[in-house]
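INFO batch 0412 | record 1 of 1 | parsing
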Amino acid sequence: MRKTSYEYRHYNHSVGLAVVHLVWIPKRRKKVLIGEVKTRLIQIFQELAIEKEWAIRALEVAPDHIHLFVEVHPTDAINQVVKAFKGRSAYLLRSEFPELKKLPSLWTNSYFFTTAGNVAADTIERYINDPHHG
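INFO prediction complete | emitting tokens
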């Protein structure tokens, strides 16, 4: 479910746009996000976003890192959004692809985040969708 416009959302007691750009890497920066693993990871992210009613605005899965630009609810803490994506994907991918169990964990503990307003959102989406990443 990829939205194409940035519109303010109306909630019970607020109106706004909560979008966040997230980046994280596999443990030891291993280039494991390829082929069927990459395909399944994208599917897991899409299913989770639908379940949580989040909107994935842009997603890049490079062999050794993830760029995720996602619109969330204003009450969702960024660390909990990251935990949901990293936790579910690590659990499912490591159970479905035993070769990933060679790593002590799928993801590092750290991640990068930045929030974006209505103006910056389009710029971040263009950056992630630019084919300059490997």
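INFO post-check: The mean pLDDT is 91.
INFO record closed
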